[in-house]
Request: fold
Amino acid sequence: MKKLIAVLMAMNICFLTGSVHAQEKITMYSIDGSRITVSASEAEEYKKVGWYDNLSQVTTVMYSADGRETTVFIGEVPEYKNVGWYENLSDVTKTMYSLDGREITVFLTDVPAYRAVGWYDSRSQVTKTMYSTDGREITVLLKDVDAYRNVGWYDSIEDVTRIMYSLDGRQLRVFLGDVEAYKQVGWFDDIDAVSKEMYSIDGRSIRVLLKDIDAYKKVGWYDDIRDVTKILYAPDGREITVFLSEVDAYKQVGWYEYKSHVQKTLYSRDGREIAVFLDDVEAYKQVGWYEIRPYGVDPLKPMIALTFDDGPKASTTPSILDTLEKYGARATFFVLGNSAKNNPDILQRMVSIGCQIGNHSYSHPDLKTYSATNVAYQIDTTEAIVSSIVGFEPAVVRPPYGSYNKDIMAIADKPFILWSVDTLDWKYRDAEYVKNYVLKTARDGAIILMHDIHSTTAEAVKSIVPELIAKGYQLVTIDELAAHKGYTLQSGYVYSQFK
Ligand code: ZN
Reply:
């Protein structure tokens, strides 16, 4: 401020002296605020060393951020800058923008107040760039975006372009308007037209150009995900698709490779079959489904299991099967291994008409007199013979003479089936006697013992079967009788009737 006072003092001097030499003298100024009075002839020389004849040539206007202005000598500018003054108006102002497209220039100190009433610092805050499918861009006010959308402008460049692909693996982003032209010169807008996803058995995937697929196949990649995955099944009906490399791990935690391993076929009394998941079997059994084909068995009506031992015999057993088949009846045949071996067709017919096959040892010894090894031979050999003929082992055992002990049961490892009615048909060899005895002793749940190797028994069966049926009995197998009476046959147990 000292310089400013000096200017004022110099002006006073000028005023006093100027009144005397007005015609001859010129006042000159320097940028530090000094002035001198010189003659007109001297003035040109002074201009060459930094003096000016006009005050406006040595002063400038400076601005403050709050909107004030002041005029200072040019020499004072640095000093003023140090205390917050600026040389340019643009240094203390800012352009602000409104949502409706107006602009306004305000002093910096007013910016917060303008922000508070809806003005924004930058144009990008109130505008948006929009794109057209032919590649043009336009910047519009936010309030106009919807209107522009309605006339074919899009928010993002992705909306108006498409990635195109070449057979050699290049990619290009192309405006929608140009897609057809690119197609004409060998580009594709579908990545699947130039490449294919390939898969490894450990679950990796990779996209491979069509021309490279054969090469990848040679090193263990597959172009069909079904080639590297497998569907596994759970007993509760869930399915899961896993990669081949994971199959073993899943199997160890209760998953199975085949649906048939987690399902069981159940049967209804009216002849229907259904495959249900293992976890659902018990629920189905409570509503009228059976694990054994019930052949129309009515669990509420009486039933009997006819059993025939010591066969099969070619001269007598087929006659019994004829009778059973004729009346839709079934029985259980406890066969000897060495007889079964020689009559495979008879065993197959037993199964085909719904009869059951039991194990009666290989050669009919009293097993209690045999060593463990020989007992095992008697049981196991017969199992193998039956299995080789009909495809499955006998599910039950009847020891010859009904003779057994705990060791024999442990070796056989199957439920033991005895009888509740012994016809002694082998002793009487009298068809009439046997028939009468059976009819007299028949009752619900009975297991009746006969022998299919006697012609008298075959003869008796011809009338036993129809007469028992006439009395209301259903003639069923051991498995059916047990199942319908609520028994689950177990190894280590002996059954002689099912009440
Ligand atoms: Zn026997």
About this structure: The first strand starts at residue 25 and ends at 29. DSSP finds 18 helices and 26 strands in the chain. The CA atoms of residues 212 and 255 lie 36 Å apart. Residues 1-22 have pLDDT under 50 and may be disordered.
